[in-house]
């Protein structure tokens, strides 16, 4: 039902702001790596392969930032997934505490949550992936896209960063990462909440819930694009780069981590 609605609105509202919640970062690769970039990607792969997605938030707007409507109602989605167990799965304690404080009920997720594999099947036919007309709006989204690729492909992430970006560009051809855009804006710094405050964007809903965070991401992007890039078209030249990964990654240099 919800994905049918998504299919109905995506043509008119092709700007999709996305956020995920997941169990934090629990592992780091050990050994010698060709570069810092290789190390960072291996850490991403190791954690995404090991951990489970908890929430996904999606907010749809048009190019002016107007929120999607259906039968007069504003549309923002938060998908709560089952499968993650506090008793059986690994997680970062501080991340889970933040999610609990934000109101996430893990027991309720387990009894009433969505099966992530079934969701991946529905997402494939939703019209929002594999679509050159859709623009994805995100904030520091390496891990967000890692988890989405994992559920879309039903496979571990690719072994190399290059293969990751090849896959990413197939499923998500047009990506704005606000954290990367901030490199081109004077005096902007910090995380999403800090940036929203600096741009006078008001949050609706609780922090650290994916639906509310996706809505804040959407509003913040429009404000940023209009203030610093003369609109979305001006920001479009910076599409396709994820903050801290790929071409925005650390300079090529030898990297060694012994796990200490």
UniProtKB/TrEMBL annotation:
| Gene Ontology cellular-component annotations | CCR4-NOT complex; cytoplasm; nucleus
User: According to its UniProt record, where is this protein located?
Assistant: Cytoplasm; Nucleus
At the top of the EC hierarchy, this enzyme's class is hydrolase
EC numbers on record: 3.1.13.4
Respond yes or no to whether keyword Chloroplast is given for this record: no
Query: What reaction does this enzyme carry out catalytically?
Result: Exonucleolytic cleavage of poly(A) to 5'-AMP
- Alphabetical list of Gene3D superfamilies matching this protein: Ribonuclease H-like superfamily/Ribonuclease H
Keyword S-adenosyl-L-methionine listed? The answer is: no
Q: Which GO terms describe its molecular function?
A: metal ion binding; poly(A)-specific ribonuclease activity; RNA binding
Q: Which PANTHER family match?
A: CCR4-NOT TRANSCRIPTION COMPLEX SUBUNIT (PTHR10797)
Q: What this chain does, per the record? A: Ubiquitous transcription factor required for a diverse set of processes. It is a component of the CCR4 complex involved in the control of gene expression.
Q: Could you say which protein family the record assigns here?
A: Belongs to the CAF1 family.
The protein here is known as poly(A)-specific ribonuclease
């Amino acid at each position: 039902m919800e994905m049918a609605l998504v299919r109905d609105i995506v043509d008119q509202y092709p700007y999709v702001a996305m956020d995920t919640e997941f169990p934090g970062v629990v592992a780091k690769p050990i050994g010698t790596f060709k570069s810092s970039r290789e190390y960072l990607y291996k850490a991403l792969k190791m954690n995404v392969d090991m951990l489970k997605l908890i929430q996904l938030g999606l907010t749809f707007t048009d190019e002016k930032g107007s929120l999607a409507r259906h039968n007069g109602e504003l549309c923002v989605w938060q998908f709560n997934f089952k499968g993650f167990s506090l008793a059986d799965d690994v997680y970062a304690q501080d991340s889970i505490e933040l999610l609990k404080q934000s109101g996430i009920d893990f027991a309720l997720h387990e009894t009433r949550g969505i099966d992530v594999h079934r969701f991946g099947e529905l997402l494939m036919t939703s019209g929002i992936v594999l679509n050159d007309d859709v623009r994805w709006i995100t904030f520091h989204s390496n891990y967000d896209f890692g988890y989405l690729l994992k559920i879309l492909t039903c496979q571990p992430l690719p072994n190399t960063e290059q293969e990751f970006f090849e896959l990413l560009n197939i499923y998500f051809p047009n990506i704005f990462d606000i954290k990367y855009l901030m490199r081109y804006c004077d005096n902007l710094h910090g995380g999403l909440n800090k940036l929203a405050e600096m741009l006078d964007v008001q949050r609706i809903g609780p922090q650290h819930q994916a639906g509310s965070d996706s809505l804040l991401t959407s509003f913040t992007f429009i404000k940023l694009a209009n203030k610093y890039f003369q609109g979305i078209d001006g920001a479009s030249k910076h599409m396709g780069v994820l903050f801290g990964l790929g071409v925005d990654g650390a300079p090529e240099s030898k990297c060694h981590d012994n796990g200490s």
